From TrEMBL:
Pfam families: Rogdi_lz. It comes from the Eukaryota. GO terms for cellular component: RAVE complex; synaptic vesicle. InterPro entries: RAVE2/Rogdi. Belongs to the rogdi family. PANTHER family: LEUCINE ZIPPER CONTAINING TRANSCRIPTION FACTOR LZF1 (PTHR13618), PROTEIN ROGDI HOMOLOG (PTHR13618:SF1). This is Protein rogdi homolog. It is found in: Cytoplasmic vesicle, Secretory vesicle, Synaptic vesicle.
Amino acid sequence: MTAASQAERTVLEEEFTWLLKEEVHAVLKQLQDILKEASRRFSMPSPGLEGQLKQENFILGSSTMDQVKGVLTVQGEALTQADINIKVTKSSQVMHFAFRDDKQWKLQQIQDARNHVNQALQLLSSRDEGYHFKTGAEVNKLMDAIMLQLTRARNRLTTPASMTLPELAASGLMKMFTPPMPGDVMVNFYINLSKLCLTVYQLHVLQPNSTKNFKSAGSAVVHNPGAMFEYNNTKFEVSHIHKVECVVPWLNDTLVFFTISLQLCQQLKDKISVFSSFWNYRPF
């Protein structure tokens, strides 16, 4: 090995040691600050009321129709009230429904996303400033674990769960309203990115002597008109579907925090891979 290449190697090793000792912890601190802010968004305190989460009201809107209108009240990961007016397509009669006072609906997507953020924070707190990373592989392993939790958190907000229509009909959500929902109306709430969405299905019963070729619909986030299903020995067809939504600003904030955090993790992994390309035998 020439003196020049030996000197270059020494410089690289010094830079890599500095990366492991100083820069990794600087990135971890940055990640921790961002994710603490993301976690805080899921449980904003109510001003002046210690120990209580902030209640926020959102008006449901659609630019194309006024068949469904309403106001939703969100408190942390719970939908605590839903006040909904539905205009029946056939008769133009307006039906009004609201959550019973003793009921609230857990927004599972928000709860799951928050849990993944907290798991990422636990991973970060397990490597405090006094911890000494010995290899790049060790840093990569931590970054991969954090990125997995953040990707799962983001996916929970960007990918609503698919449900079959019988699952929706049997859902506890259908038992939460007063007056009770009629048998020919179903509703579903879900998160899509930074939006809280409400889908209303109007159904009609397929008569036993119907000549329609019955085919039960599969699982979907939103079912289209014409979708058929059987529930309690009765066959139904979706006649109309109405979808309205409202923007929840703090959900948008959390998605931005996830993106920034994932980029920081990837940038650190990229820096480590630059050093690893200089010497392959070292267990970086």
